[in-house]
Design a protein that fits this description.
The complex is a heteropentamer of chains A (341), B (152), C (267), D (666) and E (305). Chain B is an alpha/beta fold and 152 residues long. In chain B, 39% of the residues lie in helices and 15% in strands. The termini of chain C are far apart. The chains are: A alpha+beta (341), B alpha/beta (152), C alpha/beta (267), D alpha/beta (666), E alpha/beta (305).
Chain lengths: 341, 152, 267, 666, 305
């Protein structure tokens, strides 16, 4: 669909949020909580931390939360009876004020959860969420979205994209049907955008540091290059911070919790960084040491996903590097892989 | 509304307090039925996580009781337990868990009367404090679906 | 070339050590660990006042031990961790070459546990004043206020276990969280799962935490985890006279006892 | 586990009076996994047990819950019944709905509900029970007796006569202990040598007994049935096989003036000596501290005169390692010999002696050939004062207990004195006469009536010497407490019976607890007087507390039968509710990380270190391992293990967790 | 150096010679005895029969005054006063609430920091190591050292020397060149306070003491308590009448014995005040016998402790 351009006044943003709330749409937006910024439900505009570069965690939690019930069951002498989760009980939600890399992150998640058998929990939630992303006026040294096919103004995955073009004006790009449908709610606040607005002028300058295709090729080839993975991962302490904040990591684990009468099955985030991730009941662990696990993290995103899902599993948002306690900076590692001759 | 009947679990050691409770029985001394006993070989065997599980599953009060110092059948179990509880109570207090709901005591195999007192006093105290709302808010039952979700 | 790099190269050349765990400059002007095994890597070794990370945890990492004889650039926290790990039979005397970085920039070799113990007696190992104040302010709250405070903090936890991975004392290859028969600690990171995990972690560090603060620094969700273990340090010292990480042959506070330990809550 | 049987007992009316047993049976019958549930009037009766056994067979039950009285009462009964029905006894659990429920609560729904809860807890627990077999520990059927006094001799003979091998270790050159120092023994006045020496010879000649004298136990390792003991045989500087015991060397030895310990300092002996004529083995020993050869390097008279050339000056101590299944401690006691007793002038005046020294004077083989002579001038004392409770029953002297035997031997001393010094007058200062044994009171009466001993009831305050006489100053409380002074020629103090000097070190070597007076601690003062808290180690005689000879012999025989019971079967069966550390295939081997917190906590030293080696012998892991023989199942290690690598049968983490979940989630 | 001094009533009354000899002896060893200002009666044995709080307050006030003067050690030559002060110090230390109550009664701050020394402890602490070098006229006599009761009992509180066979005074006499004989009445009662009410009893008890001393050829009896001195010395006529034997050996305070040994004359030591003439036979000056160590005496304290 051909994208429409509109102008919105900054001063109208509070009204916008009120409109959404009055229509009963839950609004998820970045909220400052001490030094950490979380994407959470908001009621008014002033709860939203618009000045923040990136939330600590990605927006994937809107569709793939850290804890999600997938099944209810009751235990009786006769046996177990299951009560499935009512899939259409999910509400239409609005993801407001996220960044382009959050929005484009869903591209990888759609690819993974879209595979057969389709994961309805994710897909239903994703289908019912409308993403209003804000383009990035600034970036920091962790960002490398431009090197993986993204960019500060990338619109992939966004239904609407706002770009601040002046102190009071926002350039609104309506990108999808969902975007159009939502924009109808505040059409009165929108005015036609003059032609010739060069959006790139208002975007951050993020240098390309490596050629993604080259990295994909070299990553696929370096499975057996143990020295490379060892050198890179010696300081990695094997926690799950990078996987859990990453917009494209989608691994999960099932756990049941019950009392003697009733129980639930929960889907939880999991990380290939944990040693437990590949521990067999026999005690054997195919990925015994941390370097193998680090290799898996890189190869999954830059070798297996491109090969099988034709999408690079990384949006270059740099969240994993910011969250990493021991400074396993993925941008630095990918650059060094790219530099392999 | 019908009077609050607290659920209290008692973790006791087999050689002293369990036998003391037996003596309370043989002497037919009455005490409130809210307290149910779980037997351990020694108070040394009572892991601090057991107390956490008790609160999570709806216990309003906990009694932990074993042999007096120097009476332990295994000679040192109760000493190690005492150190564990000194540290654990500190931690629980710091994280806002109500240690008034946990009653620690020494009850020997000959103190049938004392066991009845410990139980009755604890039940009276917990009835005054009321159900442990904080823990009920995070119990596993809150995860179950709405109809019939109440923790019957 | 700094005097430190010269030293490291010498150690590597005469095979006193096979890998030197030190600091190097990281990305976005951060400081990170480095593992120099040869002269080239030794060049990156660096030290100044901003190197505060406790590197002792890497001494137990399988792939680091695999290189052979270890050398470490230790600060006070690392020294105490080595002492505590030694008292738990994880490191033997003479197994690790310890180079201590004096605050004034000079370097001292500790060639056995005794010399480390002697040094630790002379240095301040207490908690920083600022953390003391936070603990005091929390202790001043009412019970319920503290419950709400910690509930709000634990709610943020995503169970990434960075705190566990960063702590040198958490070296169990199967943690209680991974025990599933019975599942003591719920795996999910809902309120109950987080509360159970953090209570268990604090109790398992009681009398062992050397207040290096790595857990709080590592937490991506900025939860003040160190306050949980720090708060136990003074009661354990006062009641049992035990301080973690001061002697290599120390006995563990919770596995020893005195017949007349004082308490005021057992009737 | 899905075929569980629930059996609710009425216990006549004790339970059914307040608990609706039928309802409990019905409700718990509906629990998941319960195959059969019933209630019966008397489960512990024969018909009740038959009902249980039939149900097990008929419904092919693989788990049983009996809801009745306290498991402390009938758990063994029902477990035995299950075993007889073919079900592993440890798959049977009891829930206590009598002492903990019906007897203590009124008859109402809450009580019945509590009973249901208690049954449900055990139903869920039994699902997690494992079939266990009692632990078999091999038993080495050899006993070690430490101490060769009358108690040790009696224990060794009794055990040997049961057909088991015995190894006896005695510190002195000869067995016999304090009894060999006595002249005659109360209440029958048999000469102690006449009744003791045959027993000593019997020990020496008994085929099953190996005797090590002049030896001490140095190291005791292992556990019940499997002790490893190192015995240090101090060098006697003599080849015992060659020596015929002719005694020539002892007569020729130039060193004559060494105070003989056996004579309590009243007699002397040479450097190469036999402690007393009836010694067993009757072979001399060289006292290296006082032998001129060892001090100055020359003399060797004994070597020259020895007809069989048996002297071995360069003989080294020898360490003997033995494996024994049980240990009997019979190291006896000692009579307090303070080097200075200011009030009574002991140690200042030569004629103030202690009870054992008087025994030596009265003994025919003693330094005075049985005549009562004053050590100072050798004259016969015409007036003698015996002071009972000299040091005993006296908190100021730090000994609060009564030494039990002094009243009797003091009466005997008075009697012996009168028989030897017909015109002498004996006095006894006493507080209370403790003569509770058979024929004891009659014996004391005889010394008062027939021998005219003056018994003065009062304590002696001080004894001082004046013009060659010992003035004994006391009070006669039966005469209104008037001060009384007796000018005596000799004073005998019945000093306290105390533990041997080396008792504390031996207790630590053998891992046995001891009381504040260093006497060994019995497992239970009334019900287990000859056992200790350490399995496989028993007590005989005065090492446990001051005893007279009849009691020591009785205790020795008691300990002997305990050993015989232990040796009655080849294996020792023990309750399998012990701890164990998990094991997994390589490369992990176990989740234990070797922090050995468990080892420092275990009161029974039951946790050992196991080194896992790789192919070329390098130790790659050191893991904890539980010694089933030693573990008593307290579980403290399980609660403290951070990686939950150690667990315990009967109260495993799974079982305990399930019990809580079942109890709180009805 | 300065040492607190508490004379008590007898020093100013019937036992003035005891104070004179103590002060003279202290002067020889340049110790300044600082008398506690405004000291009061210690209550002796009378107070605690009448009123417990009175018996505590009197000694407490003495010690409080000493504390106020900054005195750390107080020498209390009279055995009765030493006994009372030590017991009260012990009782107030053991019971803090009692201590505050007594402090309010005497209306003075009391912490219990002062040390109470009897005459022998005072000599041992401040004089003994310099004694031998100052001995000019060895006290070459056979001396029976009489300790009496209050110096050594109750042992659990006083913890001074041995209860049954004290040796501390004997050691001092030997150091002064004397021959401390072994005799049986070291700690037997002399009749104490019954000197006036039952003089016959005192005659009997003190008689036995003197008889044993004389029988063992003692030339002098040495005491460290004014009560003992007055009974053995002042009641000598009644003693002789009881024994119907004439005993005229003198009774000297330990401070007088040491005074004579270091060359002080009879008048400064107040020997003229004695009831029984002090005319010790003059002995030819012998080479000062080296004080032979007493027989290896094992302190049976550990037995009693």
């Amino acid at each position: 669909m051909e994208k429409e351009l509109k102008i919105l006044k900054y001063s109208d943003l509070p009204k916008l949020i009120e409109r959404f709330r009055s229509q009963g749409f839950p609004v998820l937006a970045p909220v400052r909580k001490g030094k950490v910024v979380e994407i959470e439900q908001v009621q008014t505009i002033d709860e939203i931390a618009l000045d923040v570069l990136l939330s600590t965690q990605s927006a994937k939690k809107a569709a793939f939360p850290k804890v999600e019930k997938v099944l209810d069951y009751t235990l009786a002498k006769s046996g177990v009876t299951q009560q499935p989760v009512d899939l259409d009980s999910f509400q239409e939600t609005i993801l407001f004020g996220v960044r382009p890399c959050d929005a484009s992150g869903f591209k990888s998640l759609d690819a993974i959860f879209g595979e057969e058998p389709k994961d309805q929990f994710y897909l239903q939630k994703k289908a019912k969420s409308t993403i209003i992303s804000f383009s990035c006026p600034v970036a920091d040294e962790y960002c490398f979205c431009t090197s993986v096919g993204g960019g500060p103004g990338n619109t992939t995955g966004s239904d609407l994209q706002f770009t601040g073009i002046s102190k009071d004006e926002i350039l609104v790009e309506i990108l999808t049907e969902k975007g159009t449908k939502l924009s109808a709610l505040f059409a009165d606040l929108l005015s036609v955008a003059g032609s010739g607005i060069d959006k790139s002028k208002f975007l951050a300058d993020v240098k390309v540091v490596f050629d993604v295709d080259g990295v994909v090729k070299k990553t696929t080839a370096s499975f057996n290059n143990a020295a490379l993975w060892l050198d890179q991962s010696l300081r990695c302490i094997g926690c799950g911070a990078c996987a859990f904040v990453c917009p494209t990591c989608a691994c999960f684990d099932f756990q049941d919790e019950q009392n003697t009468k009733k129980g639930v099955r929960l889907r939880l985030w999991d990380s290939c960084g944990f040693s437990l991730f590949t521990l067999h009941t026999s005690g054997h662990n195919p990925r015994e040491v941390q370097s193998q696990r680090w290799r898996q993290r890189i190869l999954h995103k830059f070798a297996y996903m491109p090969e099988q899902l034709h999408v690079v599993g990384c949006e270059g948002c740099g969240r994993c590097s910011r969250a990493c306690p021991v400074d396993m900076n993925i941008k630095e590692h990918l650059t060094s892989i790219g530099a392999i001759v | 509304m019908q009077e609050f009947e607290p659920k209290i679990v008692a973790f006791v050691c087999n050689w002293c307090t369990y036998a003391g409770a037996d003596l309370t029985g043989t002497s037919r001394i009455k005490y409130s039925a809210n307290v149910k006993i779980i037997r351990f070989p020694c108070t040394g065997r009572i892991d601090f996580m057991i107390l956490m599980k008790a609160f999570e599953n709806g216990a309003d009060g906990i009694i932990v009781s074993g042999c007096h110092p120097n009476d332990c059948h295994y000679s040192t179990g109760n000493f190690h337990a005492r150190r564990r509880w000194i540290v654990f109570r500190n931690l629980l207090n710091f994280t806002g868990i109500d240690t008034e709901r946990i009653q620690f005591s020494w009850v020997s195999a000959a103190e049938g009367f004392k066991w009845a007192d410990v139980v009755n006093n604890t039940v009276k105290k917990i009835k005054e404090i009321g159900p442990y709302e904080n823990y009920k808010k995070i119990a596993v039952s809150t995860l179950f679906n709405e109809e019939g979700a109440s923790n019957e | 070339m700094s005097e430190l790099i010269k030293k490291v190269k010498a150690l590597l050349n005469d095979k006193t050590i096979n890998v030197f765990v030190g600091y190097e400059k990281g990305s976005a002007d951060r400081i990170r660990a480095c593992f120099a095994r040869n002269e080239a890597q030794a060049n990156k070794v660096f030290f100044d006042a901003s190197c505060t990370q406790n590197l002792a945890g890497y001494l137990l990492k399988h792939e680091v031990k695999h290189f052979g004889k270890l050398g470490i650039l230790a600060n006070v926290a690392a020294l105490r961790s080595i002492m505590q790990l030694a008292s738990e039979f994880q490191i033997k005397d003479g197994e690790v070459y310890v180079l201590f970085a004096n605050p004034d920039g000079t370097f001292v070799e500790f060639n056995d546990f005794h010399s480390i113990e002697a040094y630790l007696q002379t240095t301040d190992t207490g908690i920083k004043a600022e953390e003391q104040e936070r603990i005091a302010s929390l202790e001043a709250m009412s019970n319920n206020e503290r419950w709400l405070f910690w509930n709000k903090e634990f709610e943020k936890c995503i169970k990434c276990y960075a705190c566990r991975a960063a702590c040198p004392m958490c070296y169990c290859h199967r943690c209680t969280t991974d025990v599933n028969q019975p599942q003591w600690i719920p795996v999910a990171s809902h309120e109950r799962g987080n509360l159970d995990y953090h209570l268990m972690r604090a109790m398992h560090l009681a009398g062992r935490c050397v207040n290096c603060g790595e857990c709080a620094t590592a937490c991506p969700m900025d939860i003040p985890l160190n306050l949980l273990t720090y708060q136990l340090i003074s009661p354990i010292k006062e009641t049992f006279g035990a301080t973690a990480g001061m002697k290599a042959d120390a006995t563990y506070a919770l596995s020893t006892y005195k017949p007349d330990d004082k308490e005021n809550f057992i009737i | 586990m899905s075929r569980i049987g629930v059996f609710v007992c009425h216990c006549g009316e004790n339970i059914s009076a307040t608990v609706n047993c039928e309802k409990v049976a019905k409700i718990t019958g509906e629990l998941k996994g319960v195959e059969f549930s019933t209630d019966y009037k008397y489960m512990c009766s024969d018909p009740g047990q038959t009902l249980l056994k039939e149900a097990i067979k008929e419904h092919k039950l693989d788990g049983v819950v009996v809801a009745a009285c306290s498991p402390r009462m009938h758990e063994p009964t029902f477990r035995k019944a299950c075993a007889e029905a073919g079900l592993n006894p440890f798959l049977c659990e009891m829930s206590n709905i009598r002492e903990h429920c019906s007897w203590v609560h009124p008859k109402d729904d809450l009580t019945t509900e509590k009973a249901q809860d208690l049954v449900r807890v055990m139903v869920e627990k039994v699902k997690k029970n494992k079939a266990l077999n009692s632990i078999k520990v091999p038993v080495t059927k050899t006993a070690l007796v430490i101490g060769g006094g009358i108690a040790g001799i009696q224990a060794a003979l009794d055990i040997a006569n049961c057909g088991h091998k015995v190894i006896m270790v005695e510190k002195q050159p000869s067995i016999g202990g304090h009894m060999s120092q006595l002249s005659e023994t109360f209440p029958t006045l048999d000469c102690s040598q006449c009744i003791l020496t045959p027993r000593m010879v019997e020990v020496a000649q008994h085929p099953n007994i190996t005797l090590h004298t002049y030896s001490e136990v140095e190291v005791v390792d292992g556990f019940i049935g499997n002790f490893k003991v190192k015995i240090r045989k101090k060098s006697k500087s003599l080849d015992e096989h060659l020596c015929t015991g002719c005694g020539l060397c002892t007569t020729k030895c130039p060193q004559k003036k060494i105070p003989n310990e056996f004579e309590r300092g009243l007699g002397f002996r040479p450097a190469i000596y036999v402690p007393f004529p009836q010694a067993v083995p009757n072979k001399p020993v060289i006292d290296r501290e006082n032998c001129t050869y060892y001090i100055k390097g020359k003399c060797k008279v004994c070597e020259i005169v020895c007809p069989t050339k048996a002297i071995r000056f360069d003989q080294e101590d020898e360490i003997v390692e033995v494996a024994v299944g049980a240990i009997v401690l019979a190291t006896g006691f000692d009579v307090l010999q303070p080097d200075f007793f200011p009030e009574y002038g002991y140690g200042k005046y030569k004629d103030v002696i202690d009870g054992l020294q008087f025994e030596r004077l009265a003994s025919a083989s003693g330094p005075t050939q049985g005549q009562i002579r004053r050590p100072s001038d050798g004259k016969e004392p015409k007036k003698i004062v015996f002071v009972a409770c000299a040091g005993s029953r006296d908190p100021a002297k730090g000994i609060e207990y009564c030494s039990k035997i002094c009243c009797m031997y003091t009466a005997k001393h008075a009697m012996l004195y009168k028989h030897k010094v017909h015109d002498g007058t004996p006095y006894v200062f006493y507080m209370d006469i403790r003569a509770g044994g058979k024929m004891y009171e009659e014996f004391v009466r005889r010394t008062i009536v027939e021998d005219g001993t003056h018994y003065v009831r009062g304590r002696v305050s001080t004894i001082y010497e004046k013009n060659g006489k010992l003035i004994v100053r006391g009070a006669d409380t039966l005469m209104g407490g008037i001060p009384i002074e007796i000018e005596a020629d000799m004073v005998v103090l019945a000093t306290a019976g105390v533990a041997n000097k080396g008792a504390e070190e031996l207790a630590q070597t053998v891992h046995v607890s001891y009381d504040s007076y260093k006497f060994f601690a019995e497992a239970h003062p009334k019900l287990k007087p000859v056992e200790t808290n350490t399995a496989g180690i028993f007590l005989a005689g005065a090492c446990q507390a001051p005893k007279d000879i009849p009691e020591s012999v009785a205790a020795a025989s008691g300990a002997a039968v305990k050993v015989a019971a232990l040796f009655s079967n080849d294996e020792l069966t023990r309750d399998p509710l012990v701890a164990l550390v998990n094991r997994q295939p390589a490369p992990v081997f176990s989740t234990c990380v070797g922090c050995f917190l468990c080892q420092s906590v275990c009161p029974y030293q039951a946790i050992e270190r196991e080194e896992i080696k790789n192919r070329n012998g390098e130790v790659i892991k050191t893991l904890a391992r539980v010694n089933e023989g030693l573990c008593q199942g307290c579980g403290t290690c399980v609660a403290l293990c951070r990686t939950k690598a150690i667990d315990i049968h009967g109260y495993s983490n799974q079982q305990v967790y399930t019990e809580i979940m079942a109890l709180l989630n009805d | 150096m300065k040492v607190g001094f508490y004379p008590g009533c007898s020093m100013k009354g019937g036992a003035r010679e005891y104070q004179e000899s103590v002060s003279a002896l202290a002067k020889v060893f340049d110790i300044e005895l600082v008398e506690i200002p405004d000291w009061n009666c210690c209550g002796a044995t009378a107070a605690h029969n009448l009123n417990k709080e009175l018996s505590l307050s009197l000694p407490a006030r003495i010690m409080a005054l000493a504390e106020r003067e900054g005195i750390s050690d107080i020498v209390v030559p009279c055995a009765a006063c030493y006994n009372r002060l030590s017991i009260v110090k012990h009782e107030l230390e053991a019971d803090k609430s009692l201590s505050t109550r007594v402090a309010s009664i005497i209306d003075l701050k009391y912490e219990g920091t002062t040390q109470i020394l009897n005459i022998i402890q005072f000599i041992d602490k401040y004089i003994t190591d310099r004694l031998e070098e100052k001995v000019v006229k060895p006290f070459d006599y056979k001396a029976a050292c009489y300790y009496g009761c209050l110096l050594v009992r109750p042992h659990s509180i006083l913890k001074f020397d041995r209860v049954e066979d004290p040796q501390s005074m004997d050691v001092l006499v030997k150091k002064a060149g004397g021959d401390a004989i072994d005799w049986a009445y070291k700690t037997e009662c002399c009749g104490a306070g019954m000197s006036v009410s039952r003089t016959d009893t005192v005659a009997r008890l003190s008689g036995n003491i003197m008889k044993d001393a004389v029988d063992r050829a003692a030339e002098v009896v040495v005491v460290a308590c004014p009560m003992c001195h007055s009974n053995l010395d002042m009641r000598r006529p009644e003693i002789n009448k009881f024994l119907n034997e004439k005993i005229d050996i003198p009774i000297l305070y330990i401070s007088q014995v040491l005074g004579l040994a270091v060359g002080l004359d009879a008048k400064t030591l107040g020997l003229n005040r004695h009831m029984t003439e002090v005319n010790l036979p003059v002995k030819p000056v012998r080479e000062i016998p080296v004080a032979k160590e007493p027989k290896k005496v094992v302190n049976t304290q550990k037995l009693e402790a």
